[in-house]
Specification:
The protein is an alpha+beta fold. It contains eleven helices and eight strands. Strand 3 (about 80-95) and strand 4 (about 100-110) form a beta hairpin.
């Protein structure tokens, strides 16, 4: 759930990021806060908003095909001082949703060589026209097809936006856990270096007192050098992971933010678990999978192809258009004569319909191919969800086991440390116990990281990251 105090938290966070550079205290950037910041301010998240705006623009453009249009046509031939003809024709056209086109205008022609077809009263003629498709384009035409597909695309963009946000949050979530585990590993190696330094000083003191052989200082020095190298490597890894995480941190005014050394992740062992979310998702898995934005895109694509198929089938019909034009003499506008009119019929049809039949087959192939893709994607998502949930539950059990294991390694190390301090153990044994304890901590960090990553994978596969954060 999104927090009501998110805005206050974000303000506090960025104040902390800029002010802590001059202070010795640290600021904790939690996983929940980080994901909320990414969803709100990241450029890709803002780009996702443009997807839906593109859908709105597509519908607006498609509606433009039904806009009334004004027209005016003028032609004149003047030769050898004579006005052969002068033709004026102006008016408007109104396309309608049902395929009928309405037209009205005024026509005035004159000239000594005027075509008899264009002869009319001196004052010209006003006219109206109704064009009605009888067969092809009666049930659907290009204008209606384009608008229907644009409306479907408009709905589709909502899920494309969700899909893009899920991709962004998934990558951001992985970056956070990479940063978190790198920080915890760095802390472990930092403590290990401090322990080695203290032990080296203690061994040197014991050698000076004659309690230990000089060779022990060599072994203690080697241990310190090895751990220093590990620390330096983990520091590089943490620094690089911090830079990668900074790619996802932006202010509201499109200003990137670089994390300071004083900003640290939340304790990886204390972050909230996802048991409740995963259990709830399992009980309604089928409905969640069906509502996945990736599957929704396929469904809308099938709807668009269905409209396209209907349009292709329409083109198999013969063209039969009826045009009726009542004519009106402006001089006798109060006395309409219904016997003054023009009318005509337009008929046409390809003999073999090879182009039309080929286009229809291609559309049907697209529909079949999209259905195969959608079915495969649905099965893939379902199996991936099951796999990630299995991994999550298995890793959760491993965490419990290995957490106990770390405690046991610590007990062995503490016990050996007491023996070493009392002179009853060797430097080799204390180093061995300590190394085992350090490796156990690193292993536990890795398992916890994999568990968090598995939960993120499940959220991503369900397509619900944008609703959680």
């Amino acid at each position: 759930m999104k927090r009501k105090s998110r805005s206050l938290t974000i303000v506090f966070l960025f104040i902390a990021l800029f002010s802590f550079a001059q202070q010795t205290t640290t600021a904790t950037l939690s996983y929940q806060e980080f994901m909320s910041i990414v969803e709100k301010n990241h450029p890709v998240a803002k780009q996702a908003d443009l997807i839906t705006k593109g859908g709105d623009a597509a519908v607006l453009s498609a509606r433009g095909n039904f806009d009334p249009k004004l027209f005016y046509d003028f032609r004149n031939k003047f030769y050898d001082g004579k006005n052969y003809f002068e033709l004026h024709n102006g008016g408007f056209k109104i396309p309608t949703w049902f395929g009928i086109e309405l037209k009205g205008g005024y026509e005035q022609n004159e000239g000594i060589y005027l075509n008899p077809e264009n002869t009319m009263p001196t004052n010209g003629l006003a006219y109206s026209q109704i064009s009605l498709p009888i067969l092809q384009n009666l049930l659907i035409d290009e204008r209606r097809s384009i608008l229907k597909q644009a409306k479907i695309f408009q709905e589709q963009t909502v899920y494309e936006k969700i899909n893009q946000l899920n991709e962004l949050l998934y990558k951001a979530g992985k970056a956070y856990w990479d940063w978190s585990v790198a920080y915890n590993n760095l802390s472990i190696f930092s403590n290990a270096v401090e322990l080695s330094k203290q032990r080296l000083e203690a061994v040197k003191l014991s050698v000076n007192l004659g309690d230990r052989p000089l060779i022990d200082t060599v072994e203690a020095s080697i241990q310190l050098q090895d751990r220093t190298i590990n620390y330096q490597q983990s520091l590089i890894d943490y620094t690089n992971k911090t830079l990668m995480l900074s790619n996802y941190l932006w202010l509201e005014n499109n200003v990137p933010v670089e994390l300071t050394e004083q900003t640290i992740p939340e304790n990886i062992t204390q972050t909230y678990n996802k048991d409740a979310y995963i259990l709830s998702s399992i009980t309604k898995m089928d409905s969640i999978i069906n509502d996945h934005p990736a599957l929704k895109s396929y469904q809308f694509k099938l709807k668009q192809l269905s409209v396209e198929e209907r349009m292709k089938k329409e083109k198999l019909k013969p063209i039969l258009n009826l045009n009726y034009n009542p004519l009106f003499d402006p001089e006798y506008s109060n006395n309409v004569n219904l016997n003054n009119y023009k009318w005509g019929v337009t008929v046409g049809m390809p003999i073999f319909l090879r182009k039309e039949r080929g286009e229809l087959k291609m559309t049907k192939i697209k529909i079949e191919n999209t259905q195969y893709e959608m079915n495969y994607k649905k099965t893939e998502l379902s199996n991936k969800v099951k796999a990630t949930i299995n991994e999550y539950n298995n890793l959760k059990k491993q965490i419990q086991i290995y957490d106990t294991n770390v405690d046991n390694y610590e007990k062995l190390w503490q016990s050996e440390k007491k023996l070493f301090d009392s002179g009853e153990s060797s430097l080799f044994m204390i180093n061995s116990r300590e190394s085992s304890y350090i490796n156990a901590q690193l292993k536990l960090n890795e398992i916890i990281y994999k568990n968090k990553k598995a939960a993120l994978d499940a959220e991503y596969t369900f397509g619900q990251l944008n609703t959680i954060y």
